[in-house]
Amino acid sequence: AFIAIDKCTVENGCMRVLKGSHKAGRIDHKFVGGQTGADSDRVDDLKTVCEEMHVPLDPGDCLFFHGNLLHTSSKNLSDNRRWAFLVAFNTKHNNPTKEHHH
């Protein structure tokens, strides 16, 4: 869940999602551009069939989405803060790549 503390707009880099990308299953993540991110080749392939959507939110709005939904946000180049509270849940059937307690 992504809970907006501040207003999230296109101008301040609100979240973007690839609609329906969760149906492609779990995408391997790699170290890309100084942080961990989804395999860019797979993301590029999915961009050809999944619509990219901006998700602007008002403070207090909450976006619930499947853990496999490809999502990102842009740099905040505005003068407006963009804080959010993130909560993540995962089913044991969607195992991460490392051995886990379940």
Describe the 3D structure:
The protein is mostly beta strands and 102 residues long. The protein has a three-stranded antiparallel sheet with strand order 6-1-8, with no helix packed on it. 8% of the residues lie in helices and 26% in strands. The chain has one helix spanning 40-47, and strands at 2-4, 15-18, 29-32, 35-38, 52-55, 62-63, 71-73, 84-86.
Helical content, roughly? under 10%
Biggest sheet architecture? 3 strands, antiparallel
- Count of helical regions: 1
Strand order of the biggest β-sheet = 6-1-8
- Helix/strand order: EEEEHEEEE
Class from secondary-structure proportions: mainly beta
Using the alpha-carbon principal axes, give the shape: globular
Strand residue content: 25-35%
Distance between the termini: 22 Å
Which segments are poorly predicted (pLDDT under 50) over 5 or more consecutive residues?
none
**Average of pLDDT:** 90
Query: What is the number of strand segments?
Result: 8
Please state the CA-atom Rg, rounded to the nearest Å.
15 Å
Features:
102 residues; mainly beta; three-stranded antiparallel beta sheet; 8% helix
Topology:
Elements: E1 2-4, E2 15-18, E3 29-32, E4 35-38, H1 40-47, E5 52-55, E6 62-63, E7 71-73, E8 84-86
Antiparallel strand pairs: 1-6, 1-8, 2-5, 2-7, 3-4
